[in-house]
Amino acid sequence: MADDRAIINAASEARVCLDFGTAFSKASVRIAGLARPLAIGAAANSDHPFLTPSVMFVDDGRITFGPMALARAQIAVSGRDPILSFKTILAARDLEQALTLKVKPSIDPTGTLRQRDALILYLAYLDQLIRTALHSDPALADAGPTERRRYTSPIWRTHVEGDRVMGRLFDEAAIVSADLGALLTAPNGVSIAHARAALDKAETALGLGQLESGVFEAHAAAAAYAAFAQAPKRFLLVFDMGAGTTDFAGFERLGGDDQLLSEIAEARQSCGLAGDEIDDIIAHLMMAKLKSKQRDVQSDVWRALRLHVRDFKKELFEAGRCAFSGYGVKLQLKRRELLASSRFKDYVSALTAIAATSVKAVAVRARAASSPEITILLAGGGANLSFLAPLAQAAAKQGDPSVAAVVERFGIDWRLPAGVDSRLASVMPQVAISLGGALADLDRGGHPVAG
Ligand SMILES: Nc1ncnc2c1ncn2[C@@H]1O[C@H](COP(=O)(O)OP(=O)(O)OP(=O)(O)O)[C@@H](O)[C@H]1O
Ligand SMILES: [Mg+2]
């Protein structure tokens, strides 16, 4: 591993890769061929130094972001919906048209913000966090220009089309970030009027063209594996369970020093059976225990459950049970109740079948090469869920019983970037995508490609 001086000397190559996931945003910087995660979570005062919730909240004439948005949503009486899934906007068939639509009234009742405005403001917020994180990492103190940007995308859009539209958004976000500065990370956020004025100004300004490219998420994952795994294996299936989607991509490592990866296109799949779906099952199971028939209690409890359900899921899998109390109500759920529920069982069998299809495609290639062993790499926050490794094993058996499958959690036994906070290890499956996205060699398949 090169020392920090080497990192600084090649500063001109620096680029930052953003992964604004459905649940959490992450960012990494690449300098001199090495990638380092950025502590944007610490910059945001988030629970984890490397993760910040992808949330924006509009209330009381103000817009807040990240953990502050979540905190305000949890105490707000307005019942407003804080969650804005940027991924849903980006997944639209006609991206340009989707961006011009107004944000849902349940999020912004003032009707001030279009989807593109929300995305620009959120990117501007992330830009502030990135700047703070870059300054707070001693290894990057003299890093020089770090304006170049990439973002990871689960969408197989053509390089040119997606990046032209996104490039403009990144440019406007940089202008808004410079204009609003620390207001974006202030506990009270920024007033809607002030934000609107900054957005209007940015829309007519000339941009710097910071965006280098989008990177297909599975390719980013594979690039991280090739760069950080101690002994990368030849055939691999990336099984990335995030909050919004679970994505599969298969690769063959062609060997050599440059870690060339060739994608096994038949293994590529994306489905909505991810963390949010489990959250929905959990929230419904808890809601079914509510005895009160009062409409207002029901809607208050439902909203509170939705706002806390990610924590409940974590508790449920770690401690075997979770509990909600509020509005004069106490609700408990045990892990075995979740596992025994018909909706969860259906979820597991549907996801197993989907994963089996991808395993099969990788296995065909592995057997053709007389190398009947494949590695299934669990990535994303879902890698923390205890049922996922056995599910992957079951999928391997279902997909091709003659192939030996090794299930690995992203980051186990990997070489972590030198001098980075040791808490990275616990979120490596989530942060790896931005690390790999910062590193990915785009001439060798890092681009999101046409689907
Ligand atoms: N320790 C944990 N235990 C249980 N679930 C977890 C844990 N950590 C993260 N998760 C879950 O993982 C998901 C977030 O993972 P990740 O950060 O990979 O998603 P994302 O990138 O935001 O989503 P997507 O890629 O779908 O847009 C959430 O559903 C979250 O609840
Ligand atoms: Mg993700």
How does this model look, in words?
- 44% of the residues lie in helices and 21% in strands.
- By secondary structure, it is α/β, with parallel strands linked by helices.
- It has 3 domains: 4-214, Nucleotidyltransferase, domain 5 (2-Layer Sandwich); 215-274 and 342-444, ATPase, nucleotide binding domain (Nucleotidyltransferase, domain 5); 276-340, no CATH class.
- The strands form 4 sheets. Strands 1, 2, 3, 4, 7 and 9 form a 6-stranded mixed β-sheet that branches. A 5-stranded mixed β-sheet has the order 12-11-10-15-16, with helices on both faces.
- The protein binds adenosine-5'-triphosphate (ATP) and magnesium ion.
- Adenosine-5'-triphosphate (ATP) is lined by residues 21-24, 87, 242-245, 274-275, 310, 313-314, 317, 380-382, 384-385, 430.
Oligomer: single chain
Strand % is: 15-25%
Quickly name the level 1 CATH class of the largest domain: Alpha Beta
Average residue-wise pLDDT: 88
Distance between the ends: 37 Å
The helix fraction, in percent, is: 40-55%
Global Rg: 22 Å
- Note the total helix count: 15
Largest sheet: 6 strands, mixed
| Unreliable stretches covering 5 or more consecutive residues | 1-11, 445-451
CATH architecture of the largest domain: 2-Layer Sandwich
The shape is globular
The tally of strands reads 16
Bound molecules: adenosine-5'-triphosphate, magnesium ion
How many domains make up the coordinates? 3
At the third CATH level, what is the topology name of the largest domain?
A: Nucleotidyltransferase, domain 5
Structural class: alpha/beta
